């Protein structure tokens, strides 16, 4: 004869809650690049003339190397999928006349309206070589309609990522997304080029990584500057262990 054991209802309820929370803990929502300093729509530093304001990324792929003293804030540490990207976009100018002139010049110089896309990079060779290859990328997002905003774009197709990869931002044309004159020891970013690093916007040659498999060396490092972007990763859930 088998005797059925009874359990207090409170204990049974506790077991059910444990199962729910254990399952929920197998995946996580990670905000890559989010640190204690909030993201903003960039503005020119005080006292800097409009024509000397280096807030534009021109035809480059970029990633932050330090934010608020956090090293490699865009590095992947757990497998998962990137599901959205957030970008802070400068208003450029509050003067309608200057704004029209600046946008016309930038569109003509860099091949079209402001846009950006997410890129997942994989290291190639030794760490000291600073070489990365594109392993995944999102469609391009038009930035111009969202000037003066920090805007979040959901990815229609999530991008798979694994530990060691870097989540970067590719700018096929131009994008007003740089904040600078920040604390040099706490903020820095790199661009996908090795030469002509004197000024962030000095090159007019397309050096953005636009295709899967394309490689580039990131030799141009800019301290005291932050690319205003972040990304949301949903980590891969871990199956519950089953006792046999």
Shape category:
globular
Largest sheet: 9 strands, antiparallel
Helicity range of the residues? 10-25%
How many individual domains? 1
Cα-atom radius of gyration: 22 Å
Instruction: Extract low-pLDDT stretches.
Output: 1-24
Mean pLDDT: 87
Strand proportion? 25-35%
Number of helical elements: 2
Gap from first CA to last CA:
25 Å
Overall number of strands: 17
Structural class: mainly beta
Q: What is the H/E order?
A: HEEEEEHEEEEEEEEEEEE
Structural features, described:
- This protein has 244 residues and is mainly beta.
- It has one domain (28-235).
- Helix content is 13%, strand content 35%.
- The longest helix has 16 residues, at 9-24.
- It is globular and about 75 Å long.
Write the layout of secondary structure elements.
Blueprint: H1 9-24, E1 29-32, E2 56-58, E3 61-67, E4 70-71, E5 80-88, H2 96-110, E6 115-123, E7 131-137, E8 141-142, E9 150-161, E10 166-170, E11 174-176, E12 178-179, E13 188-191, E14 215-217, E15 220-223, E16 226-227, E17 229-235
Antiparallel strand pairs: 1-17, 2-11, 3-4, 3-10, 3-13, 5-9, 5-17, 6-7, 6-8, 6-10, 7-14, 12-16, 13-15
Q: Keywords for this structure?
A:
single chain, 244 residues, mainly beta, 9-stranded antiparallel beta sheet, 4-stranded antiparallel beta sheet, 2 helices, 35% strand, globular
């Amino acid at each position: 004869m088998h005797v059925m054991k009874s359990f207090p209802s409170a204990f049974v309820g506790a077991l059910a809650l444990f199962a729910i929370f254990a399952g929920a803990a197998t995946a996580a929502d990670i905000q890559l690049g989010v640190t204690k300093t909030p993201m903003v729509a960039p503005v020119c530093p005080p006292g800097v003339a409009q024509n000397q304001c280096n807030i534009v990324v021109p035809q480059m792929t970029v990633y932050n190397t330090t934010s608020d003293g956090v090293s490699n804030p865009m590095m992947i540490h757990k497998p998962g999928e990137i599901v959205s990207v957030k970008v802070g976009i400068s208003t450029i100018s509050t003067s309608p006349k200057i704004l029209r002139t600046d946008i016309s010049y930038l569109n003509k110089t860099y091949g079209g309206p402001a846009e950006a896309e997410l890129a997942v990079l994989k290291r190639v060779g030794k760490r000291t070589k600073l070489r990365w290859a594109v392993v995944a990328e999102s469609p391009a997002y038009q930035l111009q309609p969202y000037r003066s905003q920090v805007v979040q774009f959901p990815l229609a197709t999530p991008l798979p990522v694994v530990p060691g990869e870097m989540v970067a931002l590719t700018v096929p044309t131009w994008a007003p997304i740089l904040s600078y004159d920040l604390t040099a020891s706490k903020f820095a970013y790199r661009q996908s080029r090795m030469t002509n690093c004197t000024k962030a916007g000095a090159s007019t040659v397309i050096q953005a990584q636009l295709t899967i498999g394309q490689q580039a060396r990131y030799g141009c490092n800019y301290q005291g500057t932050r690319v205003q972007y972040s990304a949301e990763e949903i980590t891969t859930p871990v199956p519950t262990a089953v006792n046999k």
